[in-house]
Design brief:
Length: 1005
């Protein structure tokens, strides 16, 4: 019975009445998810008291299923709680050192920990197989609760997994309907106001149906997902079941809605009403999306259901937006989400004939509002439904059923391993500060407050946005945000730029010496490595004489540029950054066509170039302040001065960023520059020169000198007027330059300075407790991103015994699932190598690998062989750490997977090459993480993430040993290398009288 109240049309009063009614029915019941066990409740109360303890406990639970032995369990228990240190109660801190590793006590402890975690998981997970799930569903039904069932297992990183997921849904629909459709009818849950409702109801995550689900490539993703979804929808139609599409992270939202709409407009599904989609009220897009859906339903002519929820990824969305410096898609205040939820409820109830409302919440205020709004519209309870999660807010479910309300329970089932991720999400949700359940049943906040209109709460709430840990600190320099290709406008701009650049293929690019563009008689074609028939542009190849002219031009421009105010020099860089920002998509498009970079890779390279301009500009302003150490009667100034003519020799793999980074560092410090781009990326080099011309750098300050390295390189390096060489490229050339530059030639009055960023043989260590999904994903991204042609790329995965075989098998499958396609195809994961020579070199190493190890996976690129320089990814196993494929830089998509007995051996292997550039570790052991931080000696070490993609300022980049000479690019010491420090001391004492130094008072004696 609904509350018997005379409230007229006062929705707020009716909401309060419904709310009070629900509270009254719940009485003293305590629907905390941890009820039922005194221990669980204690544990949760304790963790809720301290964020640090909570984080450690949940991390431990997350790692638990993958810990094979009692020793492992106990070690992690000790390590995690030791990390919480001062946050633990004294008694527990004292106990920690005595946690036994093994023996009967150790075994018992590990077993208890595991059993408790499983018990906790069982509160939220309906079983590990279909039979167990069916028992749970029968129990729900006996309480007049409907269900929607969800198969756990979220990170689909291989096509085999996607197909398995699809198969399991097909079985699920079959198995469930055979059983459930035999159960006696219950009108409350088997009928809506409009029609009988399917009893079998499944919830599907679309990203689980395709391992390469990616909003950057909506066409292909939609095509593959629809192919896999179609049989599921057909099976559902056949057995009279309902299918709901869950909503995942924001980046997937538009694509999820698009696929939902596209498939439901197909003839066979167009008239089918038993489908729905989740929409998240915490998103600012929520109402516009609902409006669009309503419009689309008009077109379709058949209603769909909308499950309105607040959203499960609030922390994630806020952290990602802060990390990427993207607009935050979610509301920042809880009251805003709640208020938006109520608006969306009204919207749905208003259009319930098209968008059937399924309201997903455990919040009594949100539910009461829904019920009041429906009643004010004279909608019977059967015209909408309320949905809640399995294991949460049980008394509220009971109270709603008693009020004649249809309640559907979202019931996940599946294996413990994916189950743990789900469990941790539920634990986080229930223990979050903003959680309604926590406030009402743990913290006993008053009913009035809990039922308060969110808009009223707004007035009381602090104005300060609540950001989770990790929000970006306010600082001077900000990294240029990467483009968010989940946005349709960004994709359109990129497509347009690719087409425009294609229209400009074949132009001829001159050298620039002084301010004079010079087109050589012979020009060299620059070929698109994805389509070798396409000539992107032709560049003028400099002669030895032109190299000498360029040095002379740079030399004569030097004094004026040296004496230009640092602020003015920095200004040129800031303006260049602006031009790059304006031409961002165009520059990225040139990279796609000339260097075979995929969209995101190309975009990141342009963003990094902008960063270099801004960062080095600001760094120069800092350094220009110099240092004063004045004392009475003596002035001491420490300041910097540039070195002179600088030759910049850049590679093609970061065709704009590295050339731009080295050049702008030299320029802003007052040096004049000769830019020699790689032969394979000379058109992009010409674009950089265009930018320098656009910002009107004085003549001769930057000279553009593309040419054949062997022809003009020696002239530039050996020239007595060259003061400095900044090089990035192979170890062989780097060491050669270093040797040559060390010689002092006739007429040379200085020792040359060489900066050389050279190669790497980078390794990622995979600990046996690593998160497998993340490790496999991180290794494939690091090893095969841009076809492994990055100096930071991973070429060795060192896996600890215990996880080795599982990891290798999953890695091979994940790699098989990557799409090999031309770089301009937005869904391309693997594109071409840069040129024929690179292709041959990589194929030679593949042949060596076959001698030295076991080829586990090799992609077939036959279909593209004639089109471009394609070599698919190769994975080798069982090679010795000293094998050539495990020691030499290959610079291609070749990965060797090495086995290590323990972490000591893994570190020996990892450190056992002449290089020290990047490295990584996937581990969930705090002690192992700490040890690897100490002992894995590389320039850039990454823990639990991919090892490529360093950002200026945040992760200054560069290595040591034979990986490089010099300090890190994009870091605070980089510019110093382009400068010489000077000190000037002036005695200001004249006949016992000295001027007053700044900030100094005259002491009157
Ligand atoms: C049946 C069902 C299915 C679901 N399916 C999905 C799904 O497909 N996709 C999905 O993303 N979610 C889904 N959820 C929602 C999600 O998992 C949470 O259960 C839900 O958001 C909790 O909201 P509440 O109203 O119960 O609790 P409340 O405690 O009232 O609200 C908590 C929610 O408020 C939001 N929030 C928290 N802090 C802030 C803040 N500072 N500023 C703004 N907003 C904040 C968050 O969304 C948080 O989850 C589903 C929920 C149910 C019940």
């Amino acid at each position: 019975m609904p509350p018997d109240i005379q409230t007229g049309s006062d929705r707020e009063a009716l909401t309060l009445a419904y709310g009070r009614e629900l509270f009254a029915r719940i009485g003293h019941a305590r629907p905390v998810p941890f009820s039922g066990s005194w221990w669980d409740e204690r544990l949760m109360r304790w963790t809720m008291g301290d964020e640090a303890v909570k984080v450690q406990l949940f991390r431990f639970i997350d790692a638990l299923p993958q810990l094979p032995s009692p020793q492992d369990v106990n070690r992690h228990l000790r390590e995690y709680f030791s990390e919480a240190g001062p946050h633990l109660p004294g008694w527990l801190r004292r106990l920690l050192p005595y946690i036994p590793d093994n023996g009967w006590a150790g075994q018992l402890l590990a077993k208890t920990a595991r059993r408790n975690a499983e018990r906790l998981a069982q509160r939220f997970i309906a079983g590990s197989n279909l039979a167990e799930a069916l028992q749970t569903l029968a129990r729900l039904r006996s309480r007049s609760l409907a269900f929607t069932i969800d198969l756990l297992g979220e990170a689909t990183i291989t096509e085999a997994e996607a197909e398995r997921y699809q198969g399991e849904y097909l079985q699920l629909l079959d198995g469930l309907s055979r059983e459930v459709n035999r159960w006696p009818a219950i009108d409350l849950i088997d009928r809506s106001a409009a029609a009988p409702l399917p009893r079998v109801n499944v919830s599907v995550k679309l990203s689980s149906l395709y391992s390469q689900f990616d909003p950057i490539d909506p066409e292909n993703t939609s095509r593959v997902v629809r192919e896999r979804l179609r049989p599921i929808l057909r099976a559902a139609q056949r057995v009279h079941a309902f299918v709901n599409v869950d909503m995942e992270q924001y980046a997937y939202k538009d694509l999820t809605i698009r696929i939902f709409r596209e498939i439901l407009l197909e003839d066979e599904f167009r008239a089918w009403p038993d489908v729905g989609i989740a929409i998240q009220a915490y998103l600012r897009d929520c109402l516009p999306d609902l409006r669009n859906l309503a419009g689309w339903v008009e077109e379709r002519g058949t209603p769909v259901w909308v499950r309105l929820v607040k959203g499960a990824y609030w922390d994630y969305e806020s952290v990602i937006a802060a990390q990427q410096d993207w607009p935050v898609p979610v509301f920042l205040h809880k009251w805003e989400t709640d208020a938006n939820f109520e608006k969306a409820v009204d919207f749905l109830l208003e259009r319930q004939a098209q968008l059937r409302p399924a309201i997903g919440s455990h919040n009594i205020r949100s539910l009461a509002y829904t019920m009041a709004s429906a009643r004010l519209r004279d909608l019977p309870p059967s015209s909408y439904e309320i949905q809640m999660l399995y294991g949460m807010a049980e008394p509220i479910k009971e109270a709603l059923v008693a009020l004649g309300q249809r309640v559907r329970v979202y019931t996940p089932y599946g294996q413990l391993l994916p189950g743990m991720a789900y469990l941790v999400r539920r634990l986080l949700e229930n223990t979050a500060n903003e959680s309604f359940l926590r406030a009402s049943f743990v913290e006993r906040v008053s009913e009035e407050q809990l039922l308060m209109n969110p808009l009223q709460r707004a007035a009381a709430a602090s104005r300060r946005p609540q950001m989770p840990n990790g929000s970006a600190p306010a600082r001077g320099f900000r990294n240029e945000p990467l483009t968010d290709f989940s946005r349709a406008e960004a994709r359109q701009e990129m497509l347009a730029a690719l087409a425009q650049v294609r229209d400009r293929f074949g132009l001829v690019y001159p050298l620039v010496i002084g301010s004079t563009p010079i087109t050589a008689e012979t020009t060299v074609p620059s070929v698109n490595p994805s389509h070798i028939q396409q000539v992107v542009g032709r560049w003028s190849s400099a002669t030895v004489e032109q190299a000498q002219q360029a040095v002379a031009a740079a030399r004569s421009a030097f004094p004026g540029w040296r004496d230009t105010e640092p602020r003015q020099r920095a200004g040129y860089l800031f303006r260049a950054a602006e031009v790059m920002r304006r031409r961002r998509f165009e520059l990225a498009a040139w990279e796609v066509h000339e260097c075979g970079k995929q969209w995101r890779e190309a975009d990141a390279d342009v963003a990094e170039s902008i960063d270099y301009c801004n960062y080095y500009g600001q760094e120069m302003l800092r350094l220009a302040q110099g240092q004063r150490r004045d004392v009475p009667g003596e002035e001491n100034a420490y300041f910097y001065e540039p070195r002179g003519v600088t030759v910049v020799i850049a590679p093609w793999n970061f065709p704009l960023a590295i050339l731009c980074g080295m050049t702008t560092a030299a320029l802003v410090t007052g040096n004049t520059v000769i830019m020699k781009p790689a032969e394979q990326s000379a058109v992009i080099g010409a674009k950089l020169m265009e930018i320098f011309q656009e910002v009107a750098l004085p003549p001769g300050v930057a000279n553009y000198l593309p040419g054949i390295g062997e022809a003009i390189g020696p002239t530039l390096i050996n020239h007595p007027d060259v003061a400095m060489i900044a090089f990035t490229g192979s170890k062989g050339v780097g060491l050669l330059i270093n040797r040559e530059a060390a010689d002092t030639r006739p007429g040379q009055d200085h020792v040359k300075r060489v900066l050389a960023e050279m190669g790497g043989k980078n390794a990622i260590i995979i600990d046996k407790d690593a998160d497998l999904d993340e490790a496999v994903h991180g290794v494939t991204a690091s090893a095969f991103g841009y076809q492994g042609q990055k100096c930071s790329a991973c070429s060795r995965a060192i896996v600890l015994e215990g996880l080795y075989d599982t990891f290798l098998a999953r890695l091979a499958e994940a790699t098989r699932s990557l799409r090999i396609a031309p770089a301009e195809d937005p869904g391309s994961s693997i594109g071409p190598l840069i040129d024929a020579e690179a292709r041959q070199r990589v194929l030679d190493y593949v042949a060596i690998g076959k001698e030295e190890g076991r080829l586990v996976y090799a992609a077939d690129v036959a279909a593209l062989a004639q089109e471009g320089y394609y070599v698919g990814p190769h994975i080798f196993a069982d090679a010795a750490p000293t094998a050539r494929i495990a020691q030499e830089e290959i610079f291609g998509p070749v990965l060797v997977v090495l086995r290590a007995r323990d972490l000591t051996e893994a570190l020996d292997i990892a450190n056992g090459t002449p290089y020290a550039l990047t490295g990584g570790l996937y581990s969930r052991s705090p002690e192992n993480i700490a040890r690897v931080k100490r002992e894995f000696r590389v320039g850039n070490l990454y823990i639990n993430r991919k090892i490529t993609g360093a950002l200026v300022d945040r992760q200054p980049f560069g290595g040591f040993k034979l990986s490089g000479i010099g300090s890190k690019a994009g870091g605070p010491d980089y510019l110093l290398q382009f400068l010489v420090p000077r000190t000037i001391t002036e005695n200001t004492l004249r006949r016992g009288f000295a001027p007053v130094a700044d900030g100094e008072e005259h002491a009157a004696h």
